[in-house]
Amino acid sequence: MHASLLISLSCLLAPLVAAEVTIYGFFGQTTADPAGQTGTTSAVASTTSFVTTPGPPQYTELAAYNNIYMLPPPIPSPAPANQFAIGVPSSAQLMNGLSIPQAGTFFGFSIEMSVANQLSKTTLFVQFLNLMNIIAQRAGAVHIRVGGNTQETAFLVDELADGKMMEKDKEDASNPTSTPVLAFTPELLYMMANVSTLVNVKWYLGIPFNDTTNWRFQIAEQGEAILGDNLLGFQAANEPDLYGPHGHRPLTYSPFDFFGEYALFTEAYQADSQVPIKNNIIAPSVSGTWAPELIWDTGFVEAYTSYLSHLAVERYPTDNCAVIFPNPDNPPHDPLQELPTYLSHQAGISITQQYINSTMLAQTWGKPFLMFETNTASCGGFPGISDTFTSALWGVDYALQMANSNFTGALFHFGGQNVSYNPFTAAPTNQSAFHQWTVGPIFYSGIFVAEALGTSNTSQVKDLLPNNNNDQTPAYAIYENGNLARMALINYMTDPSGANDYTATIYVGGSGFNEPNGAPASVKVKYLLAPSVSEKDNITWAGQTLGGRFEADGTWKGDENVQTIQCDQGQNMCQVKVPAPGAALVFFSDAAQQAINPSSTETFATTIVTKTANTVTIDPSVLATSNGQSGKNRVSQGGTSQGGKNGAPRVAGVAPGVAALASVLVGAAAFLRLLR
Asked: From the CB of residue 414, how many other CB atoms can be counted at a distance below 10 Å?
């Protein structure tokens, strides 16, 4: 069903003009159908150029659209077995080492605060709504954090010149991450609230921690009032273990200094009567320079437990910072050497093992434990790795490994058009008249994980370590409501010949587990596929794609292909093939598949543009208030926080124009039903 969302202003939402879009894939350059009439691409004679010289590759494009490719690693010698067995019990009670129950919202997103306006502005970008709705319909909701380094230097102001939502002053930046001082208006919070009226998105925000003598709690005060129940919590302090190295504190700054500053923070926070909810703080968000145990050993959790809703860390496997900030003492990483490290089951294990103690402690303290910011590599990722199918497979494995290790959520970072690891990227403003968005491969990881965990909030994950624990062929079992529901199978190898596709023979229950045979008559399988781990554009989930670079409007292209594989109940086995490369999600019952597969996907029509030709007409009075009035006038409109002095029904804090637009959507949907 398509809900026509009448939204337009400063940025083109979808092209109505026929234009050729050139994209580059593993099989060379392809040209997209100009008007999108066929939904197919036609190959032209061209050859992809692969990086073979060690060292950081050179490119002239924005990093989000770079044209860097690297050859897939060779097949290991000896190659992993391509036929192996996996035995699992039907009942979760018989599976040792299951994770805690996990929610479908486990895989979320982190948006750097200073570039949040690239994804949505006063105008709600329907591509963003469509993409978030894909996750929400499979997971039940989407969890998004708006923050990062730039939250630390952010100031909330009533208004900015020219009606801007935010403004950056890089001249005042004074740290190695080039973090700008950021001014933003309540428009940012209203934009977030308006997104949540259309898609079930829940938000995390951040409280600045750079000035411990003049706390800036305005984002908490207005965030509570405007977002209400759509607010999950506030991070207070982002990567405090880097405050010293980045020049924000003395180099001697220690976990005990941080503990002392938190005493000042909680004292001031408690005294702020305009913040009605005090127990939704997220900390300590250390990045790995300090082990979290250094924080726990100060008594941090015991001292501040009444304020803490979540415990959190942030972590990237490695960094690409030397390319951006050259330092003779820190030579750049060679992407050719880095690529194979992402194509290994060990990649996720090596990170999560460092937090096993902390996730256990979090359970004893009764606190969820979040990976609050992560992605392939800090400082923007590696072109040719972070924006290829490599990251999609890595993201699936890494997220499920965190779930297996009792993290309760993980947020994958978006950093703007100058980075290569984004889950999604809007077209540059000067290209929005003829280009659509770009969906990063790691967004497909989010879809896979959302379907793997489902909406029941009872899913428990187990790393199966199959094929003699071969790091090229990992697998996970997912139990739901106490029974085997799904299984994730991954193949990291690239082999177009098919010789290194593998077949997993799955045995369910049986005498080995002292229970009846449990293999069903058949299983359903969805495949995440690409021709190569180096592919950037031709990526499909169950036969459908969101499009290559500059092609994505947030809607699926192609027909869904969910394969049915017959099992041998006499032998109590199901055989599932996994291509090289690829990942398979196996559903052991129709109910397990239907529970996460929407019967129809609601989308927001991308037919509104800002040009003077081929556009619709919107009543100026509606347009003028489509995101409310100015931030100054909104203060008196009431809030949505339970217990707040200006508490009001949820829609009270939402701009009236968007509420009207939502009503239009509902009315249009009812009208369309009458026409059926």
From this structure: 28
